[in-house]
Structure formats: C-alpha cells, structure tokens
C-alpha cells in the first residue's frame, strides 16, 4: 500500500540551511507536495514537484526528487525563526493524497 | 474567497453525545476529505468523497459517518462520542485526486 515516511524532528540555527527528507512508495504518483502547518492552523501548500522533474527551486526553497529511490527532499536556505512549523510530505495517489507524519522544524536564534 | 470553512472551531463533548462537524468549500471542488490529527500520528484520513452523493472510507472510519448531499458541503458525524475521538479534525478539498488539497483551519474536539 501507499506509505510516506519522514523524520519527525529537525532542529537548526537561524541562518543555516534545513533539509527535510521524505520517502514514498507509490511510483505512479504524478505530483509530490510539501505542506507547512503553523501552530494552531491548517495545512498550507508550500511547494510541489511534478514527477518527471528532478529539481524545483522557488526562492529559498529547493525540492529534489529521486524517482529511482522514491526520495523527496525540501531544502530551506537561510532558515528563519518564522520557518518553525511542521512540514508534511504528500504524494498524489489514485483517490487521495497520502501524507507523511510530518517533520517538526525548530529554528533557534 | 473563503476557501474551506469548518464549523465549529472548538467543541467539548461528553462521552456518548453526538455532534456534526460542517465543512464548506466555495471552489467547486469534486473531492472532499476529513482527516484527524493526533500527536505523533500525523494526518489520518477518516472518510472522503469524490463527488456529490458519494462517500468512501479512509484509514480510520470507525465511529464516524459522513454525508455529501451538496457538492459544497461535507459533514462529519459522531453518533456516540468517545474519549478516543479527542483530536483536531481537518477538512480539505481538491479539484482531483492527486492535485493540491486546500485545508480548513481545523476543529479542536475534546471528549470528556
């Protein structure tokens, strides 16, 4: 079945780069997503990558996709305290999106 | 453009009581979903709908029922609330199965 795995916690210092990793199982996924959840709020789409792409860059965000290993990563450059949140990886399946458990990113000054 | 709106935002129930959570979307999306979020468990899909009049079970459907009588609304019902249903509930909608999902702000439910 479909499964999405993420590490649960990442701590970085302000100004460093953050890398959040994700593995997925459904090789037929068309899109792969990164969502951000701030405290007390719903999930908001951060970025996405189409399955035939290897990399996507959007300002401070870089998404890397390794289809062979079914590995997705999100790099945040120059991480700020406002980036502290939970980040969810999701794959677009046949009938629903499948989410990972989320990675809590803590940015310290 | 309101997007996805959930009501209520907070609720405390006693064990055995019933309630309905309402989700409304104004984006004309076919797909709608109900998730619950618990610490360390991520998001778990309860039920979903692929169009008006349809519903389907997700990963954790027991103890919940849903209805999609109108395309823009998706209702989640708890017939007899249990403490294990204490959680934050999120509704979401999307244009298609594998496209971006838009989330509501969540309903924090406590069952005592």
> Which quaternary structure do these chains form?
heterodimer
**Between the first and last Cα atoms of chain B, what is the distance in angstroms?**
36 Å
Q: Can you tell me the overall shape of chain A?
A: globular
Tell me the major beta sheet of chain B: 7 strands, mixed
Class from secondary-structure proportions of chain B: mainly beta
Quantity of strands of chain B, as a count: 11
Average pLDDT of chain B, to the nearest integer? 95
Rg calculated over all Cα atoms of chain A: 13 Å
Description:
The complex is a heterodimer of chains A (109) and B (112). With 109 residues, chain A is an all-beta fold. Chain A is 0% helix and 58% strand. In chain A, the strands form two sheets. In chain A, strands 2, 4, 5, 9, 10 and 11 form a six-stranded mixed beta sheet that branches. In chain A, strands 1-3-8-7-6 form a five-stranded antiparallel beta sheet, with no helix packed on it. In chain A, a hairpin with a 2-residue loop joins β6 (55-58) and β7 (61-66). The N and C termini of chain A lie far apart (41 Å). With 112 residues, chain B is mostly beta strands. In chain B, the strands form two sheets. In chain B, strands 2, 4, 5, 6, 9, 10 and 11 form a seven-stranded mixed beta sheet that branches. In chain B, strands 1-3-8-7 form a four-stranded antiparallel beta sheet, with no helix packed on it. Chain B is globular and about 35 Å long. Chain B starts with a strand and ends with a strand. In chain B, 36% of the residues are buried. Chains A and B meet through β5 and β9 of A and β4, β5, β9 and β10 of B.
């Amino acid at each position: 079945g479909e499964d999405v795995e993420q590490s649960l916690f990442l701590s970085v210092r302000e100004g460093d780069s953050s890398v959040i990793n994700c593995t997925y199982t459904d090789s037929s996924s068309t899109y792969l997503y990164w969502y951000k959840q701030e405290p007390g709020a719903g999930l908001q789409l951060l970025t996405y990558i189409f399955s035939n792409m290897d990399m996507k860059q959007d300002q401070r965000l870089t998404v890397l996709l390794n289809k062979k290993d079914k590995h997705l990563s999100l790099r945040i450059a120059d991480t700020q305290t406002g980036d502290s949140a939970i980040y969810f990886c999701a794959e677009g399946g046949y009938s629903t999106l499948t989410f990972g458990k989320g990675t809590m990113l803590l940015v310290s000054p | 453009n309101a997007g996805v709106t959930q009501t209520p935002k907070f609720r405390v129930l006693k064990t055995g009581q019933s309630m309905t959570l309402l989700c409304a979307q104004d984006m004309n999306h076919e797909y709608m979903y109900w998730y619950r979020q618990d610490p360390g468990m991520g998001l778990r899909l309860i039920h979903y709908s692929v169009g008006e009049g349809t519903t389907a079970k997700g990963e954790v459907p027991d103890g919940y029922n849903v209805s999609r009588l109108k395309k823009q609304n998706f209702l989640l019902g708890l017939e007899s609330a249990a403490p294990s249903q204490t959680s934050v509930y999120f509704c979401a909608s999307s244009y298609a199965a594998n496209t971006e999902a838009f989330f509501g702000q969540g309903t924090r439910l406590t069952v005592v």
